[in-house]
Structures are given as C-alpha cells and as structure tokens.
Amino acid sequence: MVEASFIFDLPDSAATEALGRALARSFPAAGAVAGSGSGSGSGSGEGAVVHLRGELGSGKTTCARSLLHALGVTAPVRSPTYTLVDTYSVAALTCVHVDLYRVQTTTEVEELGLRDMTGAGYLMLIEWPEKGGVAVPPPDLVLQLAYKGDARSAVAGAASATGKAWLAKLAIDTSLAPYVSNLT
Question: What pLDDT is recorded for position 64?
Fold first, then answer.
C-alpha cells in the first residue's frame, strides 16, 4: 500500500529536475554516494526501488536523469526504451534505470533479472512498472507524474519503511518548498 506524502506542482522541466535532485539528496544511502554527501559511506549503502508512473512525456525520464546526475552519474542518461535496462556505477551504489514501455509479457521482464539488481547497494528506477506485473520488484517509493494543464504534477508516496525514511528526509529539503502543494 502506498501512502501519499507530497504533491508537487511542476510548472516546467526545471522544476522536475529540481525534484530529481532533491530525491537524490534525500536518498537514504546518499551519504555513501560520491557527490551527494560529505560522508565516506560504508560501501554497502541501503538500496531502494522507485516506480515512476505517468503518461508519455509526463517527466519520468527527466526526473530520473536529474536524480542520477545528482548522485554523480556523469554519463549521458537517456530513456532506456530500447535497451530496457541501463546501469551506472557511482561509488558504492549501482543505479539501474529500467523502462518497461515496450515489454509485452511478464516473462520478458523476468528474463531481465531485475530482482538480482535490488537490495543493498542498488537503486532501481523503473519507468512503466505496471507493464511488468508481478515480475517487477516492489517499490519503496512511487512517483506518479501527470499533466496539469500546460504544466505537470507529481505525487510521491512511500510503500515501505525505506520509502518513509526517504520521504522524511525529503520533507526537510527546503529547495522544493515552492513546488509543494500539499503535505499529508
């Protein structure tokens, strides 16, 4: 069950990018990741799975790209629509960016081996998780992006203790204050 905690009004892509950066800063294992904290980290940081939901063009990849860059990924981050899975290593963290838009069956998703890329030391961002059904690892955090007129909105919800800890850290990040439209 997902508990909604924040609703964001995202007037432009810069606001969506700000959300991604704030998510990186508040990631529970952020101290173990180079560029996201001053601590050296233990090398085994906590892992998490994020489900990014929303229509085409709603900002899923923009948010993921910003989050990954803020964690220290220097490579170009594109939507893995055709590769399905892209991985990036940052300090003690392996970031896995998944796009299931093109998959047709849960068997295809099982063959990707996503469950082997979860747990301590992994951050998995899954676009279109609903296409993978039961083969998709359960989320810690769910980010629902949607159109809101000419702008976008996002609802961030926790689905686990890790997700709740993540949102608790996000709550003290004042950089998002202009975009928060609701606290629950």
Answer: 95
